[in-house]
Amino acid sequence: MLYAALPRINYLDPSLYGKRGDSITLRCYASGYPAPRVAWTHQDTKRTITNSSVTSFKITGKESGGKYCCHVSNDFGNETNCTSLEVIVLPRVKNLTFHLSGKQGESITLRCNASGDPAPRITWIHKDTNRTIANSSVTSFNITGKASGGKYCCHVSNGFGEETNCTSVKVTEYQPINAKLTSDMKFATANKTFEVFCNADASPPANYSIKQGNITMGGSHKDEKLATLIEGIINKGYRQRRTEYLKSDCL
């Protein structure tokens, strides 16, 4: 003698996720007697998508996501269980600030919008120093010198993908840096002429002068270098005097 058995869902695919264009397969296996009928419905649209245990389809967009329910039934009962499909959207950088320029002391604002689902995290990185400067779509800072320039990259990610786009900041005017004072000679004899050079990185080109104490010995800004001729009799104290020159101010 055969006995009737209520339908029961024995296996249902757990929650799934995918992106547009991916193929998705849903499975629902059931037991019961007589053998239960199986139907899949998309609850968000109240639409029956198949009358079989297994169904496959391609994700066409966000509308493909939502709750999918498996209904099993026979003449003695029914059961329903549901799973879900999350449609992800890979992160993309949008509306990145174009290349900027500014002077020392001015303020710069960088903007980077992004799309994606889940909503992407946004990070700004100064590539020249590999330093994270902000964890937001918009960041502002003051130009403190030439080092504030360089490449700035917007990195977006949401756990399913990532993208990076970069822009740049050019510092057009900044105070002199890396000033150096050098001489073309290590040793000299009496009545010998030698040169002292002063150079620095600056924009616009710096004006230069060399001072020993309160005495200015020369000045120029041609070719961003200064050549000061120091003439006279080099006495026994030359080495000490030369050291003093090279410790003089380079302005």
Features:
single chain; 251 residues; mainly beta; Immunoglobulin-like; 1 helix; rod-shaped
CATH top level of the largest domain is: Mainly Beta
Major sheet details:
7 strands, mixed
How is the CATH topology of the largest domain named?
Immunoglobulin-like
Please report the distance between the alpha carbons of the first and last residues.
Answer: 109 Å
CATH-defined superfamily of the largest domain: Immunoglobulins
Number of strands: 21
| Mean of all residue-level pLDDT scores | 84
Radius of gyration: 38 Å
Keywords: Disulfide bond, Glycoprotein, Immunoglobulin domain, Membrane
Membrane topology: Single-pass type I membrane protein
Domain Ig-like: 7-86, 91-172
Protein name: Neural cell adhesion molecule 1-like
Structure description:
This protein is mostly beta strands and 251 residues long. It has one helix and 21 strands. Strands 9, 12, 13, 15, 16, 17 and 20 form a seven-stranded mixed beta sheet that branches. Strands 2, 4, 5, 7, 8 and 11 form a six-stranded mixed beta sheet that branches. Strand 15 and strand 16 form a beta hairpin. The protein is rod-shaped. The N and C termini lie far apart (109 Å).
At a glance:
Pfam families: Ig_3 (PF13927). By secondary structure, the chain is mostly beta strands.
Q: What is the strand and helix layout of this fold?
A:
Elements: E1 5-12, E2 16-19, E3 23-33, E4 37-42, E5 47-50, E6 54-58, E7 66-74, E8 77-94, E9 100-103, E10 107-111, E11 113-117, E12 121-126, E13 131-134, E14 138-142, E15 150-157, E16 162-183, E17 194-203, E18 208-212, E19 215-220, E20 225-230, H1 238-246, E21 249-250
Parallel strand pairs: 2-8, 9-16
Antiparallel strand pairs: 1-3, 3-6, 4-5, 4-7, 7-8, 8-11, 10-14, 12-13, 12-15, 15-16, 16-17, 17-20, 18-19, 18-21
Membrane topology: Single-pass type I membrane protein
Pfam families: Ig_3
Subcellular location: Membrane
